[in-house]
Automatic annotation (TrEMBL):
Region Disordered: start-end pairs: 72-102
InterPro entries in the record: DUF3499
Protein name: DUF3499 domain-containing protein
Upper lineage: Bacteria, Bacillati, Actinomycetota, Actinomycetes, Pseudonocardiales
Domain of life: Bacteria
One Pfam short name: DUF3499
Length: 102
């Protein structure tokens, strides 16, 4: 996997190792597309020439995952329920009453 980043101000496209954080104008690519990608006419393409290996998990990644799982499993965690009356609508989803509600 690799990350493609566009720098519009410099008319440059950069294909490098997979990014660990989301950035504006960045897109993750599979190996095949990372190696075959071309830049628009008039742009410079900077490409990492090594193998695109996935980044190894760090202690920070594992700690963040453990904290997220711990938080999700807390019994005293407040659970927010959206107010619904009958068949409410939230975004593109509809909330339907259960068959026991009237």
């Amino acid at each position: 996997m690799a990350t493609l980043t566009y720098v519009y101000a410099d008319s440059t496209a950069v294909v490098g190792p997979l990014a660990t954080q989301a950035e504006p104008h960045s897109y993750d690519l599979c190996n095949a597309h990372a190696h075959r990608l071309t830049a628009p006419r008039g742009w410079e393409l900077v490409r990492f020439e090594g193998e695109f290996a996935p980044p190894q998990p760090s202690c920070d990644d594992l700690t963040a995952l453990a904290e997220a799982v711990r938080e999700a499993g807390r019994v005293d965690r407040p659970v927010e329920h959206p107010p619904t009356t009958g068949t409410g609508r939230r975004g593109h989803l509809r909330v339907l009453p259960t068959p026991t509600e009237k």
